[in-house]
Amino acid sequence: MDLTAAVDVIRAPLGDLLPRLSAALFDAIPHRAVAELSGNCPHSPFKTHGHLSGDPGAAITTTELAALSPAARAEGSWQGRARIGGADVPVLALYSDATARGALLVLVRTEETPVPAAALATARVLWDLVTAHRDRMATEAAPGVLAQSRAAAAARATAIAELVDAHGAALSALLGVLRRRDLDDPTARARAVDLAVTALAELRARTDRDQALVEEPAGDAFARLADSLRPELRGLTVRLDLGPPGTEEGADRPLPADVANTARAVVRAVVHAMLDEQGPGQDGAPHPVRRVHIGWKVGEGELRATVRDDGPGVLRRTALDARRVGERLAALGGRLDVDAVPEWGTTVTATVPLGPPRMAGEDPLYALGARELEVLEQLARGRRNRQIAQQLHISESTVKFHVANILEKLGVTSRGEAAALAHAWGATGS
């Protein structure tokens, strides 16, 4: 590795530092995965890159890294076999004391032979550089870095809250059994034991699942969302239609933990807002929500979550702002689109980038909402307003409204200019 590689690592965006570092070290120290535990990282203290062989569900955890920290701290590095992702594998652990809180880097190696002294020294210097660079970013954090830090903290808080909820539900169930006077002692004891065993198994499963706080397949993340919504809608006359991501929609695509947790929180908040904002239609007659459809799709670089109801179409963005939906999405550089059509219902689309937040100005289409992007795609295909309305199942007047907004946001004066931008920036799909 030369100084050019070091410069390339340091200049990388926050979300690309670990992948760039892995690439810089790969030739000298072949490895299949890398993980870091950095107390001074303004984004997330624990991150991984790469994949472990064997069990596709295996994941590196903070506990496994923390176990390697004392040995690496003592000498600055440690190499040998350690338990990572539930298996004994050869690893190299590097510890940097370039900052007061220190930082640990662990490479899951592809071979057993000791790392040569020269390669080891170079790796330690590079890790010290990255650690010092991160410390500077933490002390001189720009707004974008602060937003990512808040999002990561929110992801960890959500995971902790889910564990607390599960623990509280288990205790409540146990107390309910023990307080029942119609059960004799042996029966109450048997039921309490059964509840405790079931709750403990579920709690351990949640802990294993959330401990890494790194990523999870989109399909699994959606299943957790569905599991959390079903009990909340139980007893209501509302049908929950689920559109989980299939293979084509990126079901196997790993989602960063902050993205998955934020998407789940946003969808739950939107569903609750839809149910709370029910009211009469334009004719004054009751128009309750009877069906809520939820769908996820993982595209190239983003997760798009759509929630659609058949209610009166009166939901407004202010109702979602009160539930901090926009704030949660903004922390990850996401966007929100609300399309409420009286008598037809409301469609809310939340789009979350899978990488570092894009900065406004880098992409002229950045300011457009999800529905506006759909209209722009149809417009770029040469379709007229009536055809767009039929394709998107909206009215022509709604199409005209979106087209006017698109032209204004893009700073163009004609549909042709807007279509040219759409083609130039890849908004036309396949």
From TrEMBL:
Coiled coil: none annotated. Keywords: DNA-binding, Transcription, Transcription regulation. Pfam families: GerE (PF00196). Signal peptide: none annotated. Transmembrane segments: none annotated. This is HTH luxR-type domain-containing protein. CDD domains: LuxR_C_like. The lineage of its organism: Bacteria, Bacillati, Actinomycetota, Actinomycetes, Kitasatosporales. Gene3D superfamilies: Histidine kinase-like ATPase, C-terminal domain (3.30.565.10), Winged helix-like DNA-binding domain superfamily/Winged helix DNA-binding domain (1.10.10.10). InterPro entries: HATPase_C_sf (IPR036890), Sig_transdc_resp-reg_C-effctor (IPR016032), Tscrpt_reg_LuxR_C (IPR000792), WH-like_DNA-bd_sf (IPR036388). GO terms for biological process: regulation of DNA-templated transcription. Residues 361-426 form the HTH luxR-type domain. One of its GO terms (molecular function) is DNA binding.
